[in-house]
Design brief:
By secondary structure, the chain is mainly alpha-helical. The protein has one domain. The protein contains 18 helices and two strands. A hairpin with a 3-residue loop joins β1 and β2. α4 runs parallel beside α12 (266-302) and α12 packs antiparallel against α13.
Length: 435
């Protein structure tokens, strides 16, 4: 009886941490999603379809900027969760100082390389649009901004490991609002120039990387020591599987706009960007739960509480089906939604793309549950191997089959099938928990 009551208390504690973070994350993210939809409208109407296609091609780089830490951030997150209540300020200072110093060293080298390498490559995008000095300058500012901000993401890893994932979602919301304000106050009439837009993106991004880092440091009384001896390349060895998994996952998730821009043209890239914006919003809506789930699974596993992990997994799969149903409703009413949003119901010519995205949405959400269990347990080999094989097959199809003749919806259909296969493979992590 005592063991049963103890288990119930542990479950209640995990539930409280999980749902408190989820509630705050949903509050901040719901507002952020609405703000991003407004930002999307603001940009597509100001830039025009072609230049917005260029901006849409830039955006996946934001996701890839998380690779700059070589998986160190995810490793730090698990280290902080493992220490939990035993975490002393001295140990936390050491973890953050070493990780931050190492990342600052890496990013400083990359910034110098980008500063001295002249972007002299003139590429013809689908024989229609040549990269001009405006595009090259914008891309340079964009990449430098991400490199400057990358080391500060280590503070979000700390807050996630300490079961305070809501700090990250709050920061993302504030960044979006600030970006919109800057556009309205200063450059609304000049956003047709990508350089103006990128400069204010840089200001907004940097501001809300620095302020959360200051807040988290003050909250946990973290004292940073930036010195040469804190550059620790052993962090790479601990984090390499996280890095491989990040690279492959981001490739699978974000490569499509680039492929579509080269294979089908920038106008189709803009169409894809609109549809993907809707369904990625639903994926992000689901991912709000996953933000905290990783650390909660890690905490539960550390005390051998597999019951909580399996029960929460079933609830999340049920929620995935609910998200899938919303996706189907959006597909059914896609004409009305696009008309209300953009003012042109024919902006997206192929309506089947909405239905293909709905099934991709379902498989992506369920697969992410199993991936986060693997991440929490440090069992990443399965996802790395399976994603490597799937991506190889996907690129073979893209570059050796005449996909141009089948329309870009064929790519989303193909990815949906591959996402289903990955879900089945990654679900085998449950065997480790049950054993």
């Amino acid at each position: 009886m005592g063991i049963y009551l103890g288990q119930m208390k542990r479950n209640d504690k995990l539930d409280k941490i999980f749902f408190t973070n989820a509630a705050l994350n949903y509050t901040f993210s719901a507002i952020n999603i609405a703000a991003n939809f407004f930002l999307f409208y603001l940009l597509v109407t100001s830039l025009g379809k072609e230049k917005f296609g260029i901006w849409a091609t830039f955006l996946p780089i934001i996701s890839f900027s998380s690779l700059i830490d070589l998986g160190i951030g995810n490793s730090v997150r698990n280290m902080v969760t493992d220490l939990d209540n035993k975490l002393s300020n001295k140990k936390l200072n050491q973890i953050v100082s070493k990780a931050l110093t190492t990342l600052l060293f890496i990013c400083s080298i990359l910034i110098l390389l980008f500063t001295f390498i002249q972007l002299e490559i003139a590429i013809d995008i689908n024989n229609k649009l040549q990269i001009t000095s405006e595009v090259k300058t914008s891309l340079f500012i964009f990449i430098i901004t991400l490199l400057i901000n990358a080391p500060l993401n280590i503070f979000f890893s700390v807050s996630n490991g300490l079961h305070k994932s809501y700090i990250q979602t709050a920061s993302q919301l504030l960044y979006t609002i600030f970006f919109i304000i800057l556009i309205y106050l200063f450059i609304l009439e000049k956003t047709s120039n990508l350089v103006f837009l990128t400069v204010f993106f840089s200001i907004a991004k940097t501001t809300f990387s620095i302020l959360p880092a200051i807040y988290i440091s003050a909250l946990k009384r973290i004292k940073i020591k930036l010195k040469k001896s804190n550059i620790d390349f052993l962090y790479f060895k601990k984090a390499k599987m996280f890095f491989y998994a990040q690279v492959l996952s981001l490739l699978f998730l974000t490569v499509d706009p680039i492929i579509i821009s080269f294979k089908y043209g920038l106008e189709h890239t803009a169409e894809f960007a609109l549809v993907s914006k809707i369904y990625l919003a639903l994926i992000n809506f689901f991912s709000i739960l996953i933000i905290q789930y990783w650390s909660s699974v890690r905490a539960a596993f550390n005390i051998s509480n597999t019951e909580w992990i399996l029960n929460s997994k079933r609830k999340l799969i049920g929620f995935s089906l609910f998200i899938f149903f919303i996706g189907l409703l959006i597909a059914f009413f896609s004409n009305n939604i696009v008309y209300v949003w953009i003012g042109d119901s024919n902006f997206v010519e192929n309506k089947f793309i909405f239905y293909f995205f709905s099934f991709y949405l379902l498989f992506h959400c369920v697969n992410s549950i199993f991936l986060n269990i693997q991440n929490a347990l440090g069992e990443l080999k399965l996802q790395v191997i399976s994603l490597s094989v799937i991506l190889t097959l996907y690129f073979i199809i893209v570059f050796f089959v005449k996909v141009e003749t089948m329309g870009y919806s064929f790519l989303i259909f193909t990815k949906s099938i591959f996402a289903l296969i990955l879900t089945i493979i990654n679900s085998t992590i449950l065997n480790k928990l049950k054993s």
